[in-house]
Structures are given as structure tokens and as C-alpha cells.
Fold:
Amino acid sequence: MDQAARLRELVREKESGARVLAVVSGKGGVGKTNLTVNLGLVLAKWGYKVLIFDADLGLGNVDILLGLVPRWDLRQVINGEKSLAEIIIRGPAGLQLIPGASGLQELADLDSFRQEKLLQELESLATRQDFVLLDAGAGISRKILSFALAAGEVLVVTTPEPTALTDAYGLIKILARLGTKNYLIVNRVASETEGREAAQRLQQAVRRFLHLDLPLLGFIAEDRAVGQAVHRQQPFVLSASGVKAALDVEAIARKLLGRAASESKAGSDFFQKLGRLFGRRKGDF
Ligand SMILES: Nc1ncnc2c1ncn2[C@@H]1O[C@H](COP(=O)(O)OP(=O)(O)OP(=O)(O)O)[C@@H](O)[C@H]1O
Ligand SMILES: [Mg+2]
Structure:
């Protein structure tokens, strides 16, 4: 705990606003939402203020993993019925959540007044956080790339499967052009050796062909406790805190905290970029 407190101070000194992290993947179903929720909870348990923004357009399900039933979601915000602050729900350990909506696509069509209002509200909410985690979804759509760009720091999640690694490479190739700071997480590894080999393969390709560094944040073991936690709608870092996957997520959180926040381009910059994103039209990427 002492070490966590020291790291917390370090992060607070270096950053005035929140560190904004987008969780993305090339291939779907590799574990982004589980990572977002459990990483957010670990940080929240350690005393950080964490806000999760369910930005997986049309497929948001962070609330389900947390066992929460939001009364409102982004749809009401977009419709102008609710403010963003009004739809935020509190999860375990003080974690805060902006529940996603299948109507999120409509954000792109917001009139400029409402768009401005929403962004101002998000900005003011984020200044009170230490971390904002965006569960940004899979693939290389314009929206996902825009969230990654807006966040500045990107957690690329893959499994050791060749298909997932290939899709991760495809995504990183595009992120490389956007200049985001990318980190790698390999999920569902049978052993550390398998994880290390998969990470090295991807890191080597990224270094060789994209001339980029892809720091490894860690591995998460293939663990039955993850599926069980999903079924029970109780995140495994809380309901099964001693299991391998939970220890792995904690190690990732420590590594993330150890990475100087000054490397990132988080803070209010995020909202300027987000504003530009919603101002963009289809086909910009
Ligand atoms: N470390 C793990 N060990 C075992 N099973 C896992 C692990 N991580 C994820 N899973 C399984 O994979 C499923 C998909 O995970 P999750 O929903 O987090 O992926 P996702 O990347 O968010 O998917 P999508 O792209 O559809 O949003 C989970 O329901 C869980 O059963
Ligand atoms: Mg998901």
C-alpha cells in the first residue's frame, strides 16, 4: 500500500487532469471490456478516482460486467433529456461509469450547441478523476481510432492467437500514423512463455516495419475465474481477488502507474481532440 501511495503522489504531481486511456483491439472478443472493468476497479481500490466511459459504440456492456442496471445511458444525454453528470453511476470501490448506448452513433450528428455542452461537461467531470478508461471496442473504424487519438494513451489488447496478433498489428499500423502512445497487453495466455513469445513476435514486427516501440504492460492468464465472474456479473478482481487473472491485472496496473504520466498527452487536450472528432464527417480516416 505504501508503494501504491507513493506512486499515486507521483501521478498526481505530474498530471493535473486525468490520464485518459483507450482500450482497443484489432480482433473482437479478446478481453477489452473485462480488462477495462477490472483494471478500473484495481485502480479504484488503490484509492484513485476512476471513470469508465463505455465507448464501445452499439455494443456497450461495461454495466453488465459490473452487475449494474443503469436507469439512463448516453442515449438520454444525446436526446437532451439528461446531463452527463446525471447518468453517471457509481460502481464498487467508488468507480464511476458513464453507461454506453447503442444510439451513440448519433453523437456525430449532435448540433454544435449540444456537442459543446456535452464536451464541456465531460471535461469538467474528468478534471476530478485520476483515470478515465475508454472501452473503445474492436476494429479500425473511424470512431475507434478517434477515441484512441483523443485519449493519447492506448492499451492494445490481443490474445496469443495468430489471427488476433495479425489484427493487432493492422490496428497498430494505423495508430502509428496517428501518433498515439501505445502499450501492449496479451490476454488469455496459457503460460508466461506463450505470452512472451506472442508479445515478442508483435513487438518485432512493429519495430521492424513501423519503427515503433510497443512497450509490454503485461499478460493475463487464461483463467476460468474470468468466465465465471462474467456469468455472476461480479468482476474477478473483487469476487476472486487471489486468482491468477486478478494478480495479472494488478501487475498491469502497477506497471501502468510506473510509466511516467508525463509520457502521455492526456488532460484537457483530450477534449479538444474529442471535439474535433465529433465535428468530423464519415470517411475522414
Ligand atoms: N483471461 C481470460 N481467461 C478466460 N476467459 C477470458 C479471459 N479474458 C476474457 N475471457 C472470455 O472472453 C470473453 C470476451 O471478453 P470481453 O467481453 O472482455 O472481450 P471484448 O474484447 O470486450 O469483446 P468485444 O470485442 O465483443 O467487445 C469473456 O466473456 C470471457 O468469457
Ligand atoms: Mg467489449
Q: What stands out?
A: Residues 2-279 form a domain with the Rossmann fold fold (CATH 3.40.50.300). Residues 181 and 263 are 8 Å apart (CA to CA).
